[in-house]
Each structure stands twice: as C-alpha cells, then as structure tokens.
Design goal:
By secondary structure, this protein is α+β, with helices and mostly antiparallel strands. It has one domain. It is 37% helix and 39% strand. Strands 1, 3, 4, 5, 6 and 7 form a 6-stranded mixed sheet that branches. A 3-stranded antiparallel sheet has the order 2-9-8. The model has no long low-confidence stretch (mean pLDDT 81).
Length: 183
C-alpha cells in the first residue's frame, strides 16, 4: 500500500509542471490592454508629425503601452521564450518580468535593461541583469539578449524613427521619455 502511494505521488509529480521559482516582480501587475499596443504606435506617429514642424521630437511611453505591445508580439510566436510579460519603467531601468516554460519546468525571469544612446543618436539596450529561475544568467546570454532587444527596438520603431537623432532618454515613475531631433 505504501509503495502504491509513493508511486502515485511520484507519477503525479512527473505529470505536473514543476515551478522552480526565481525572482519576484519589481512591482504590482501591469494590465494589458488591446488598444494600448496600437496607442504606442499612434503616439510615435503623432510625435513624428509634430517633429516635422518643430524640428524636435518627444515621445513618452508608459508601462501599460510597452507591456501590451510586448505581450501582443509574444502572442504571435508559437514557442515564445517569455510568457505573461510585464514591463516596468523604474529608476533608469527597463525591467522585463515574466515566466518561461521548458518541458515540465516553469521559472520566473527578470531582465534589467539600461537604455543607452550611441554617439550617432541611436538607442541601444544593455542588459545589466538577468535572472532565470533561481540563478543569474551567464554573460553570453546577457550579450545575446542585449543585441536582440536593440534589434527589436530599432526594427519595430526604427522605421518610425528614421531621420531622428535621439538626444536623451529617461526612465522612471512608470514612463520612458525619448527626446530627439530631426537629422
């Protein structure tokens, strides 16, 4: 009888997903809104339209817009590495929190990203911290993710920002402000 109970316990554990934990989210959950992703693109387009007249562009993005945008992009991927994404804009950092599932394992992920401006006025993202489950990510993974984030930002918004030289970027209190000028 004891053997049957132990066997039953082992089989139920194997059949279920094992949550290995990891970092906690840096803030309360951020809601996703279907219109927020579209609103983000509309905000860029409006800022670019006004820049034609003023010669300067200023865009302010918020956590709901970026979380909704990221969630909508990840929803289109069949095997997305990150699920349930949350984008936090706090203390000069863009923090992306979510979960990942591989086979029977589920873990929390927290990426800490510092936006930087190149001498050419382009935005790059440096991954300054990455925790996957209970362990920090290796440096090679950090470099790869930094390159992918930069490519994703310039690919998604690059066509909207063509001809713009970014002069400053600030992150805090749930918002990211990007200021630039026409080239």
């Amino acid at each position: 009888m004891v053997i049957l109970m132990l066997l039953s316990l082992v089989l139920s554990t194997v059949a279920c997903q094992l949550d290995i934990g990891g970092p906690e989210p840096p803030g309360p959950p951020i809601p996703t809104e279907a219109s927020a992703s579209e609103d983000l693109i509309r905000t860029w387009q409006q800022a670019l339209s006004s820049a034609v007249n003023q010669g300067q562009i200023m865009v302010i993005l918020n956590e709901t817009q970026l979380t909704s945008f990221l969630a909508s992009k990840l929803d289109t991927e069949e095997s997305a590495v990150l699920t349930e994404p949350q984008v936090y804009l706090r203390e000069d950092l863009v923090q992306v929190y979510g979960t990942t599932e591989r086979g029977p394992l589920r873990a929390n992920i927290l990426l800490s990203i510092t936006p930087e401006i190149t001498p050419d006025g382009e935005v790059e993202f440096a991954l300054t911290g990455a925790e996957i489950g209970p362990i920090p990510a290796p440096d090679a993974l950090r470099e790869t993710i930094s390159a992918l984030l930069t490519e994703a930002f310039t690919g998604t918004f690059g066509s909207l920002a063509t001809g713009i030289r970014v002069t400053s970027i600030a992150v805090g209190n749930g918002e990211m402000a990007i200021v630039g000028e026409l080239r």
